[in-house]
Amino acid sequence: MDIRLLAKAPLRDAILAGLSPSERSEMHAAAASAIQTAAPGAASLRVVFDHWLAGNLDRAEITVTALAAVAHARQTLDHAGERHVLAAIARDARFADRTRLDALYDLCKLSAAAAEFGAQLHWSGRALRLAARLHDHEIHFSVLQKAAGLALHFGDSARAMRHLRRAKKLMNYPETRRFHAGYMLNLANVHGDLGELDKQRECLQAAARLAKDSGNLIMAVSAQANLAGLLCHTGDLQDAAAEYNDCLDITKLVARPDIEASVLSNLGYLHRRMGKLSKAEEYFRQSGAIYQQIGDTTHLAEHWNHLATVASDRGDVKLAIEFNRKSIALHREAQSHEGVIVPLCNLAINLADIGDLSGARAVMHEAELEASRDIPVEDRYVYLEAIARIREREGNLDEALKQNEFARCMLREDTHELFIGYSLVDRASMLMQRGNHAEAKEAALRAQEILSRAGVEESPVYLTNLSVLVGSLSAMGESGMATFVAEDARSVVAKLKESEYGGTGFSNAIGRLEAAMSAGPEQRAAS
């Protein structure tokens, strides 16, 4: 007999009639194994349910753990069955309190994944109340931290901070000491969400120190990588490089190639921001080799997009297009719908830059289909900026400026300042083309302030902004200010020409800047 027929209710009931509870459980386990491929979630639920009814709580608890792993691996919101079983276990006093807590926390995670804030608060509150009743400081501290993380996931920084303040009262107990580094990391995330960057930096430094002292090197890498990212955001690029290099040394000690590749990729991004394109490419290729070796297709796809940006900075647009296409193909292979948007938009921009507007429009149609999903704000920004660039190349400056404004309005100044700077450079350039010199000057001045603060003075985009600023000042007859900016620009150009910075992208930017400076006196005389 085909044991899969046990999934049919009438036949199942007839066969199971008269069997003991334990025999029923064994039969259902065999049936679940047979239909596991077709319906893994349903099979796991059936096993849990029958162990539970039969009173085999130990086996049910093991299956609950397996069920949570299946749900995580699927990464889908189709969790109705899991919710039902987990909620029943959370209410059933026959289970161990720790298992009930784990079930409650899994319910919190499912609610978070489904963006159900009310349900997440409900289950989180129940978990906190159960943890408090257990008088187990370690469990209570852990649940408070989890509740803080879930609240932060929904952007409720105030609630997250309240949970962490309650957790702080438990930090004097010996059994909670091994969690202190994680606590400081959570606290850093809350301060970052509140825009309190100095406090965030202090917490990250403390988290890294505590993690090293306790021997938790993985958490030390996480804290230092977050610290390096914060330093990048505030423009402290040399300090950020030092933190990333320290992370790199630690990852080799723990033999985690995936984390090592991530740190190398971040170093590549950092050096690209510093204008050191050869070094950036070297780090990107090192990380790509590791991703290739460990079979991480998604990150390998991102690696090719990183190389495309380096090629674009150098002005080698055809090579950038080739790398964009490799990135897109790998994202498609990995079914990474979210990750494919950025390389699609970059490909469209590069096609527009070489005059292939029909190709750019076709690619943006693909990007539009992906952007119809719920995507991160950074990806939405890139999508709108790509549309703006194409409209600019088409000569439709009004529509280009509108899309540029839409993109910038989506960004938060405290977390996306650098993106805002890049967007303002595009705006200033388009306004110059329209002859709106006063508005172009205003946008360029604000962009210069942001780019200088972020430490990207030695990059093509900064030079482009200087050329717009010099040109707008000259056109408005502000000769003194134009001369002052031109002198500053000459010192930047001289430094770049003597260093490793280079490539066609830099050469073109320097050419535009020098043209703007040489045209300045004539324009001032004419005005």
> Which runs of at least 5 residues are low in confidence (pLDDT < 50)?
1-16, 34-40, 68-78, 520-527
Looking at the structure, what is the overall shape?
elongated
What is the N-to-C succession of helices and strands? Answer: HHHHHHHHHHHHHHHHHHHHHHHHHH
Tally the helices.
Answer: 26
Tell me the distance between the termini: 96 Å
Instruction: Give average pLDDT, whole number.
Output: 79
Q: Main β-sheet: number of strands, strand sense, barrel status?
A: none
**Strand runs, count:** 0
Derived from helix and strand composition plus strand pairing, the structural class reads mainly alpha
Structural overview:
- This protein is 80% helix and 0% strand.
- The protein has 26 helices and no strands.
- The radius of gyration is 28 Å and the shape is elongated.
- The longest helix is centred in the last third of the chain and has 23 residues, at 504-526.
- Helix 10 packs antiparallel against helix 11 (197-214) and helix 24 packs antiparallel against helix 25.
- It has helices at residues 9-16, 21-34, 40-53, 57-74, 80-91, 97-113, 117-134, 137-153, 157-168, 180-193, 197-214, 217-234, 237-254, 257-273, 277-294, 297-313, 317-333, 341-353, 357-371, 377-394, 397-409, 417-434, 437-453, 460-475, 479-497, 504-526.
- With 527 residues, the protein is mainly α.
